[in-house]
Design a protein that fits this description.
The protein has helices at about 1-25, 60-70, 70-90, 105-115, 120-125, 140-155, 185-200, 210-215, 230-240, 245-250, 285-295, 300-315, 325-330, 340-345, 355-370, 370-380, 435-445, and strands at about 100, 125-130, 160-165, 170-175, 205-210, 255-260, 265-270, 345-350, 395, 400, 405-410, 415-420, 425. The protein is of the alpha/beta class.
Amino acid sequence: GGGVGGAHDRHVAQARRLEAQARLPAVAPSPPAQHYFVPRAVQFPGKGDDQVIELAEISVEEDHELQKKHGRENYFKMKLSWLDRELVKLHPPGVRAVKLEVDRNDLFHDSFRAFSKLSGERLRQPLQVKFKKEEGRDDGGLTRHWFMLISREVVNPEYAMFVSLGKDHTYHINSASKHQPHHLEYFRFIGRVWGKAAFDGFLVESHLTSSVYKYLLGIQVNDEDLQHVDGAYHNSLQWMLSNDVDSAKLDMTFAVDEDEMGCITTVDLKEGGSQIAVTNDNKGEYVRLASMRRLVTGIQPQLEAMREGFQEAFPKDLLEKFTESELELVLCGLPCIDVKDWRRYTEYRAGYSDKEETILWFWEIVEAWDEAMRARLLQFVTGTSKVPTGGFAELYGATGPKRFQIIRVFDVTRLPQANTCFNELLLPPYHSKETLAENLAMAILDGGDHFNLR
């Protein structure tokens, strides 16, 4: 009986807290931004000023030499600074935002329909997102949130557009997507979303395979990229290169069997391939063609549509010196949340300081959480679970660079609240660490993704 009673007491306490919260006046949010800037519209102060390069004027040979001279990580930062400066020029001040009103319950199709209406210069204008039947005001936070949600939704297995590869949640284009009506229009839309995110400086959440990034950049895909899509198949093909296939009597031809939606079909890798035996003399060609079938030729229309959409939203020439791994960082931000970096670039207001007991408890709780819970907290406060490539120093708000902020509010009967447009966590000074941990988790887990005026 004790466990049930304890649970009952917690539910009663939560109900009373929420009831009290409903009666009390809402915490006043920051005033609306007079001018809403996308991240790319404002240069971060001092970023890259110490080492300025003109990437467009650098040859391929000079590119390699500079990487050797400065090191890969430092040279990438220099390239990012150049990209930021170039994109600032393409975001003139005073441009009106394009309103994007979407239904959260039909996010994929509603976003597709709304985005399809944008073309030419309108695709380069800032977005201002509104979710139907929600009161949230977009000063940048909702747009960040929309990019996160739509980049999750397009890889939903329900649409059969992508397949998930392993535990790291990397996605590759599903060859069976060709059976989806309007699939090429959908991939063009996805390319536009990824390109628009990079152009405006927002982040997407779904990581794609290196071969997809290479195709978007126009970099040659090779058979080594197969290890990131199907490691076992890649190893089998590499075994063929290292061994005598004639004596192994594999009885293979230049054709492969493919399973699509339960149907096995045989596909020739070259003209008349099913009649050409694989031998020691031609096995290198077989490995190359079999790899390319899995990575490119089997999904080339989808890749082309996605690249077309990407280049409609993002100037092709600005990424010519970037590698596929660098493009992934531009699109998805850092792969892990560094709590030390987060703490270093957090600001405190309304009576809080980094030495205050509530703040010390807060960071102890965040340190103890796993990566998933930290990501949920970051999403709750900023609208996205991703960290920019420059770390927490480069978080962005409605009016420009805006650090993560923890603001003291005095009503301890309320759950923590957030203002995503300004990266603000409104945190009461609870009387114990346990209460803080419980209320913080309740706010970010039970609050859902819906936005309302606070």
